[in-house]
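Example record used in the benchmark description.
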Amino acid sequence: MNWNSCLRNKEAKKITPDTEMAASLEKTSANKALSAHLLELRAETAASKISLSYDSVRELLEAITLRQGFKIYNHVCYTAFLKEIIKDTDLADAFDQLRQIRNDINYYGKDVSLTEAQEILQRLKKLRENTLPLLQE
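Model output (structure tokens):
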């Protein structure tokens, strides 16, 4: 999906920038990142750690879009936003791959080994680190 499709299908829209909501989401994102970090990685917690880490990144993206005057209603359009508005294809592709992994875990019950979970969590950590500077733009 591209950014124009997101706008045309009302899955994203132009709004007045909302810095208060963005600041709130940044705080929530940090709390989820901390919670994921504090949760011990075990077979029983792997999916929860991945979900918390993913949500932390997604909330950062929402804060960025709100600061830039957009409201996005689905996760796929964050990929389009990153590609076409931010112009960072690498970040967009990384987010989209991790979005699909998280969806498989959350909605289709995909099991992940501890080794896979560690790799996914490392990728999410890097994605979060690479997303944080966009808050300053």
